[in-house]
Amino acid sequence: MPETLPPDCVGLVEPRTLHFSDPLPLACGQSLGEYDLVVETYGTLNEEASNAILICHALSGHHHAAGYYSLDDRKPGWWDSCIGPGKPIDTNRFYVVSVNNLGGCHGSTGPNTVNPATGQPYGPDFPVITVRDWVDSQIKLADRLGIQQWAAVVGGSLGGMQALQWAISYPDRLRHSVVIASTPRLTAQNIAFNEVARRAITSDPEFHGGRYYEHNTVPRRGLMLARMIGHITYLSDASMGEKFGRELREQAYQFGYDAEFQVESYLQYQGERFSESFDANTYLLMTRSLDYFDPAYEFNNDLAAALRHAQCEFLVLSFSSDWRFTPARSEELVNAMIAARCRVSYSEIDAPWGHDAFLIPTPRYMDTFSAYMDRVAREIGA
To answer: What is the pTM of this model?
Structure first.
């Protein structure tokens, strides 16, 4: 825990809940009559409301992207390395809005919140949400905050999909789209990983068809396995080898099936932590949203056609060792942007940490990100 806050930190922060009472139509054909979004904001909105940045989170992320809730916190927000004074997203220049997506489990309306029609948690009755639905809810958020146009919409992984969808759905409402460690659609292998993770959850005897709230229980084992599967895909073989190798917890083989290797112990620890903090129905929803994302689908599978009306500039970043969303997928996106005559900057960052590299402040990554965001700031006189 910090004894004093570092000078490049946004400081102590508080989330706030915004209620929306206008119905939100969803891609699945249903609608939410009312809903809450939990947000955190950092920095100051200028008089023209032109310096606002929207942060979109990844699968297991949330609104707490930077700063600390108290001096007793062990860790800051999940992207504190990139948000704050003097950092790539400089809060001396930008007003930063970080939102917990609909369907999340950290305060925004989702499966673990109360359905006003029944007085009980939504549970499995919560509708499947798509990336486009998230963006539709975020435009309502922008309107509520008085932001007509974002200086940039920024996200990594699933957050990058949202940044891309913004450029397609609301081309005049953002100046820049920053798409990091993402993809224009999942490969069959990625969909397969998501299905195995979902099956781990739904096969847990404590899942109860998604109505585990009513049974005062949690499908902990299923969530743990799902996280272990996911975590393996977020790391590279090299990074796991460097961190754990084949090190044993004890000095010799135990000839049993408990965790004997350090990597086994690490994965179990990550799974146990996750099962205590994340909602199983939300995990199902988020992974299905990943599966469905494919902006080319409605344009006869022509990604360039989907991007043709985009007005913003793009920054696309990939990481050399990311085998979950490989650089080839980012290059596919960049090629489609070029074909659509979009203005795009692209860099593949050499980093050994796999998909999680977008969370690690390596020098080349920070320099590239900072240079681009500096240009965004200078464009609006910030």
So the answer is: 0.95
